Amino acid sequence: MYQRFDHGESIYQIVPPEVFIPPKAPMFRSGIPDYPPTASTFHGPGKTHPICSNMAGDATQKIVKDRSHAEFGKPMGTYKSDPGNFMRKMARSSSVPTLREMRKTCPEQLRPTHVKESKFVAMGGGGPPKIGDQPTMGLKKSKNFIVANAVETILAQPRKPVDITKDWLTKEDYGRLPKYLHRVKRNMQREFDFVQQLHEQNYANSQPPIQSLDDAERVVLLEGLKSKWEKKNMEYQAGIHVSVLSDGQKRNREKCEAELMSFEKDIEKLGKKDILVDLSR
After folding, report:
1. CA torsion, points 51, 54, 55, 56, in degrees to nearest 10?
2. Quick one: pLDDT at residue 126?
3. Residue 264 or 192, more confident
4. How is residue 85 annotated by DSSP?
5. Minimum mean pLDDT among 15-29, 79-93, 157-171, 234-248: which range?
6. Whole-angstrom Cα distance, residue 205 to residue 208?
């Protein structure tokens, strides 16, 4: 059916409509308190707790509280020292105040808690004697000191025995090695030297025999190598001007070049002094 305002295509259809995203509903939270289950076996990690807990169902908290870092320690980096949080001066202690400061701040602490009783009061007097007081004369004691000394001696405990054990720390040779240990050390050193000497002999026998080359013999060998090099060089120079070579001529030229290089290396070696010759070869 034809509709009056139906134009088919329209520019408004090119722009996509905005997608409506409904807002997220708040998370559901139950009104029932999160109490631990009754007769639960999932509780304590230790052995002191029973197999089942909360049998009456009246527990409002966990039977065994969670421990934050009881098994594997705190997370990585927790024990790292903080350069800004260090112990300050007098953080765990305090300086002793002077007597002047104590008198100003807390003088009650300077008052004695216990005053010693005067000896005159303890003897029944009213304090130290005055200037006009006269001492009582003719006082005697009824104590028999002979009997008292005998009773004191009888009732006295026996003396403890004197410790007569020898103090080994005061010996003349305390802390010194005995003679037999010095003898053992000398024997061990001799055995060590003997074994070391055997190792040195075995090492010397395992090395190849080496002899120093005489200077006159070195000069003779050097002159012989130089003469051989000159002959081989003349032979090489005789055929170097040929541009087109056959296979045999190429091999001959390469052979001459290799021999010349070998002669040059030997001449360089014999040109040095203090040459050692391996006699095992």
Report:
1. 170
2. 64
3. 192
4. S
5. 234-248
6. 8
Print burial letters for 8-41: b (CB count within 10 Å at least 16), e (below 16): eeeeeeeeeeeeeeeeeeeeeeeeeeeebeeeee
pLDDT at 273: 75
Q: Residue 120: its pLDDT value, please? A: 62
Q: Which of 47-61, 115-129, 144-158 shows the lowest mean pLDDT across its residues? A: 115-129
Mapped onto helix, strand or coil, the DSSP state of residue 40 is strand
Query: In angstroms, what CA-CA distances link 105 with 76, 102, 108, 145, 257?
Result: 48, 5, 9, 56, 109
For tokens 């120093």, the residue is 212
If phi > 0 it is left, if psi is from -120 to 50 it is alpha, else beta; for residue 124 that is left
Top pLDDT among 16 and 83 is at 83
C-alpha 55: how far from chain center: 51
Q: Is residue 270 exposed (0-12), middle (13-18) or buried (19+ Cβ within 10 Å)?
A: buried
Instruction: Provide CB contacts within 8 A for 25, sequence distance 6+.
Output: none
Tokens standing for 223?
């002159």
Global model pTM greater than 0.70 = no
231 contact partners, CB below 8 Å, separation of at least 6: none
- When pLDDT is averaged across residues 27-49 and rounded to a whole number, the result is 77
